[in-house]
Design brief:
Length: 875
């Protein structure tokens, strides 16, 4: 038997209670079932340092919608949650806590004790974001929650590193890398954000050693000139051909450096002479390799000039820049200084300028790995939604550099390489060694660096399912199905997962990458701490309920595009939730049946709603399969609000309130059936309110979230009946609109004449026209009235409708009302015209004010014309 719903829907009470029930009854559990197809999503692991933000809310909502949809479709659905150890972010948090609370640095504690502190911090705070995700209704299998540094994931990281090392795809080499002097660690190319910054182009004179003159070199980096080991010119540049092979004397350092010819040099840039600093510029490094130029590094890990910088030793890089420029000006060697805007690399984490420096680091050789990762996308084994992002991905993969994977941190996966102090060779093995594998010496030390956080994240789709072991989960749930993520981490993460999976599992990690955009504020700005425009999703949930937030995020969304977040839309979606709640309460108050099934006999309006529902089921399912979640949500919204609540419930009221028990029960059965099926469609989007209402309705089974997804049935495709009902509804809408224009209250009944060729249809519609179009009586005919004087007419596609004007309004009273309105409007218009004819007002008032008055004049003139037309119609 159905139960009653409270008068007001209280999300805070319902959401926590229902979520706890789902969890305790194992509703989220992903189980391998040979009778079912698997559907797997791995959650992009948020940082353990993280607080839930609107981007997480969007990401989690989309994944939850897909997971709930597939679970209801009968798949063995598994959504694997987890968190990322977030190397640098977590280490900085713990170091800051140490410094503020105890006045200590990590070096005071030592590596082992410091890592104990980080693990302790992770245990205290690392679960915070998990609890926040539950507030969003995320139906993850929390029993399978993983951490990128748990035992299984760490085993996978070790296996991948050693395997790639053995294949020659991981190597240690001195290369120009991106270095953040603030975070004191290397960065991969993907971790560098470029910003256009105003700067200068300094033109400096480098004297020829033979005293015959000087070359002018242009640079944006005078602070690295102490590391110059050559000057390059283009071999085709006639201005300098005679100087190739000669030398210049490096100012301040008084070091002789060669002039070399290289095609890299752009003859049009600056003077066509470029100073070569191989230790501090990736292009200079390559030129240096070709010409055997010395590599001299002049900046240390903190961006401070080292002993190679001569008189500038100990200066910060920016102070050094000022003093180098001043010294060259003093020596008369500064030709000129130009303003120059250029792209500067900044650290994605702290936003300080990145320093390109030469450093011994570990790299993954990308070219061999990129080939298969590009093929699977080109051949359609991995599809991007929207498809345009495949071009972004392929373009990056085609131009990818070797990946710098070592980081100068303590928190993370320590590189599994040991150096032998006796034979100088490296040992890289799957288990920690106790001696050198080459000479047997016990005198070995481990590489202190850790791996880039993204190295472990790249293995996430298969490491979380048990790889490298052969597990039942890996066999059943892998490859996964869909990756839901933002376009901002295609390079950081998506590309790396694809090439890692192709290399280590010989399969792509998923068949679809579903890309969403950023959630921006109402003005279209990125949400950020600096702007103070971030909106806390948990606050939105407290204020409007989780379902309203989810529905707001999804209805304003199209794949791959940024969306603006309007708080007012949360309010609108809460109103939508209340609309469903009130409609459900109305049904429950009128419900006497204890089983929800369709009756054998269906009325016209029943066939109409069932046919509409059938179309919605077909369309929404197709939209969901195509990842058009926003379109699907809008169709469900429109069906519930318009078709079910505003129309069908009204159409059934006569039967519900009538004396015929059989017809009453038939109406209840269809109302209940349609609501139940609609709740199933809405459930992935608004899981809490739908579950709560479903539990109150007559039902079979324990939970709505475990019910079967509605299916399209050809036998419910009542096209003719649907069209017939729409004709009647069009007539009702047209009459209501006309009566509203004339300010006629619904209580004022009037005779209605329907002129139509569809007399059979409108005969069926008579009861609805009488009740919903305020008709005191209805005449259906194929002949228009002989005279239409004194009749109000309304036209629809299927009929022309006539109502005697005198029955709608008191003609004398209406004429008097209109005359009064005209008098008022004409008086207002005269005032505007007087104002606009005043030259002082027009010339001195702000343009916007004058324009507003002109618009008011136009509107008032139009209103007067309309009122006069209405008066004429009254005769």
């Amino acid at each position: 038997m159905a139960k009653e719903l409270p008068k007001v829907y209280d999300p805070s009470e319902v959401e926590s209670r229902i979520y706890a029930e789902w969890e305790s009854h194992g509703c989220f559990r992903g189980k391998a079932d040979p009778e079912k197809k698997p559907f797997t999503i791995v959650m992009p692991p948020p940082n353990v340092t993280g607080q839930l933000h609107m981007g997480h809310a969007m990401d989690a909502t989309m994944q939850d919608i897909l997971t709930r949809f597939k679970r209801m479709q009968g798949y063995a659905a598994l959504w694997v949650p987890g968190t990322d150890h977030a190397g640098i972010a977590t280490q900085i948090k713990v170091e800051e806590e140490l410094r503020v609370k105890e006045g200590l640095s990590r070096y005071d504690l030592g590596r082992e004790k410091f890592l104990e502190r980080v693990w302790d911090w992770k245990e205290r705070f690392g679960n915070r974001i998990v609890e926040q995700q539950k507030k969003l209704g995320s139906s993850c299998d929390w029993e399978r929650s993983r951490f990128t540094m748990d035992e299984g994931c760490s085993k996978a990281v070790r296996e991948v590193f050693v395997s790639l090392y053995e294949k020659g795809l991981i190597y240690k080499g001195s290369r120009i890398i991106n270095w953040c002097p603030n975070c004191v660690t290397a960065l991969s190319d993907a971790e560098v954000e470029y910003q256009d910054k105003p700067g200068h182009l300094w033109h400096m004179r480098y004297p020829l050693t033979d005293g015959s003159g000087y070359l002018v070199v242009a640079t944006t980096r005078p602070e690295t000139m102490m590391g110059d080991t050559g000057v390059a010119v283009n071999p085709n540049d006639e201005r300098y051909k005679h100087l190739v092979g000669k030398t210049v004397t490096l100012p301040i350092m008084n070091r002789e450096i060669p002039i070399v010819a290289d095609d890299y040099v752009d003859m049009e840039f600056g003077t066509g002479c470029v100073k070569m600093t191989p230790a501090h510029d990736p292009n200079d490094f390559e030129v240096g390799l070709r010409h055997n130029l010395e590599v001299i590094r002049v900046l240390d890990d903190h961006g401070v000039v080292n002993s190679e910088g001569g008189i500038f030793e100990g200066l910060d890089r920016y102070e050094c820049r000022k003093q180098v420029v001043a010294k060259l000006e003093e020596m008369g060697l500064m030709e000129k200084i130009e303003d120059y805007s250029h792209n500067v690399g900044t650290c994605y984490r702290c936003h300080n300028d990145v320093e390109p420096i030469i450093s011994a680091q570990w790299f993954v050789k990308m070219e061999p790995l990129a080939k298969e990762a590009m093929r699977v996308v080109k051949d359609g084994e991995v599809k991007f939604v929207p498809e345009r992002f495949s071009k972004t991905y392929l373009n990056w993969m085609e131009n990818v550099h070797d990946w710098c994977i070592s980081r100068q941190l303590w928190w993370g996966h320590q590189i599994p390489v040991w150096y032998c102090a006796d034979c100088g060779k490296m040992t890289c093995v799957r288990e920690d060694p106790d001696c050198c594998q080459h000479c047997g010496s016990k005198n070995i030390t481990r590489d202190p660096d850790v791996l880039d956080t993204w190295f472990s994240s790249a293995l996430w789709p298969f490491s979380t399912l048990g790889w490298p072991d052969k597990t039942e989960d890996l066999d059943y749930f892998y490859p996964t199905d869909v990756l839901v993520t933002g376009y901002d981490i295609i390079f950081f993460w998506v590309a790396r997962m694809i090439f890692s999976a192709c290399e280590h599992t010989k399969k792509p990690p998923f068949h679809t990458v579903f890309i969403h955009g950023l959630v921006r504020d109402a003005q279209g700005r990125k949400m950020s701490k600096s702007l103070g425009n971030g909106i806390d999703p948990l606050e939105m949930i407290d204020q409007y309920g989780c379902d309203a937030l989810r529905f707001n995020l999804i209805t304003g969304n199209s794949p791959g595009n940024d969306m603006r977040f309007y708080t007012e839309r949360c309010e609108a979606m809460r109103n939508f939730a209340n609309k469903i709640w009130n409609a459900s309460r109305f049904l429950l108050m009128n419900l006497t049946i204890d089983e929800c099934r369709l009756p054998e006999k269906l009325e016209l309006e029943d066939k109409w709603i069932l046919s509409k529902l059938n179309s919605v089921i077909r369309d929404v399912t197709a939209n969901m399969e195509s990842y058009e979640l926003g379109v699907a949500a809008q169709k469900i919204y429109d069906f519930i609000w318009d078709s079910y609540c505003d129309w069908y419930i009204e159409l059934t009221k006569a039967r519900l309130n009538g004396d015929n028990e059989e017809r009453k029960q038939q109406a209840q059965q269809v109302l209940c059936y349609v609501l139940t099926e609609t709740l199933k469609l809405l459930h992935p989007f608004m899981p809490f309110i739908t579950e709560e209402i479903w539990q109150a309705l007559p039902h079979e089974g324990d939970y709505l979230m475990l019910q079967n997804w509605p299916e399209y049935h050809a036998e419910f495709d009542f096209a003719e009946d649907e069209a017939a009902m729409e004709k009647i509804m069009d007539a009702i809408k047209a009459i209501r609109a006309r009566r509203s224009e004339m300010n006629v209250p619904p209580s004022k009944k009037a005779e209605l004449t329907v002129v139509t060729e569809d007399s059979a249809v409108f005969t069926l519609g008579v009861p609805f026209l009488e009740r919903l179009a305020s008709a005191s009586g209805v005449e259906i005919t194929s002949e228009a009235p002989a005279s239409v004087d004194g009749l109000v007419s309304v036209v629809t596609a299927a009929a022309k409708l006539y109502i005697p004007l005198a029955e709608l309004v008191d003609l004398d009273a209406e004429r008097a009302r209109i005359a009064k309105e005209i008098e008022k409007a004409e008086k207002y218009l005269a005032g505007i015209e007087k104002k606009l004819s005043n030259e002082k007002f027009v010339s001195k008032a702000p343009e916007a004010v004058v324009q507003r008055e002109r618009e008011n004049m136009e509107k008032t003139s139009a209103l007067i014309a309309q009122l006069k037309e209405s008066a004429a119609a009254l005769g």
